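DM from R.C. (forwarded with permission)

"hey, sorry to bug you on a friday — could you get me a structure for this? deadline for the figure draft is monday and I only need the backbone to look sensible"
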Amino acid sequence: MEQEVQWCMLNFTGDHSVSYIKKLTFNAFFYHMWAERNRRVFRSESRTPSQVLQGIRSDVRLRASGFEKSLSDTDYNRQFMARWGLDACFSVPQLINCYWKKPFSGFVMINTDGSLNGDVAGFGAIIRDEEGNVLAAATGSSPPKTIILHELQGLETGLKLAHMHKFRNVQIGTDSMAVLSYVQRSINPPWVAITVLRNIRRMIQSFESFHICHIYRETNEAADHLASLYPTSGFLEVIPSSFAEDLKKIIFDDKNGKAYPRCVY
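My reply, with the result:
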């Protein structure tokens, strides 16, 4: 049972409708199992497995009917909703141009990310100048906790790297809305991340100028790659010349001067 619970915790992630229904099912399962246990112990009554299953399905459908469900129009999502007998609004994914965000004049851009994969966790950061040249990069690993903690460790690594290279005006690019919210103090962090966040805020105060913004995950490929290296060291600086050519490459967009294309989806 413990392995099954751990699997659910790792796979029922995200904030889309399918994930939410999976979480509802997870909670309803334990509620009905405990209710059935009490029914048998205290009332000497029992229900058949199919009756318990029907109770779980009814509770999930009832709760899920109370929120608007918008999903990408995929075969998996349509079949998932059909099996639950739920209505949903399906949208066709749109092609978008993804850009690596150019920093403000006089700033460096620090892309950061964190990674959690089973029993390993890592984080990474890469610093570029206004021309897209790689100035510094670092990677690291830590005992696996939560993805939020490791994404914050990526930010902590980027700020530490900027201090080491004496950059005074820094701009952070993160694909995590949670990290953005924690730094901007719009929501409170989980207790496991409080120490790291305090260290981040302390380092932010020492810069002359600091800015953080949300970016597309597709444009954060280099930081994501660094976060997935999982070195044995808690902090390991990477020599820019050893960085893979496809991760260093930036194609210029001279038309608007504000961003460089990184990929198209």
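R.C.: lifesaver. The mean pLDDT is 85.
me: no worries. The chain has two domains: 1-92, 98-264.
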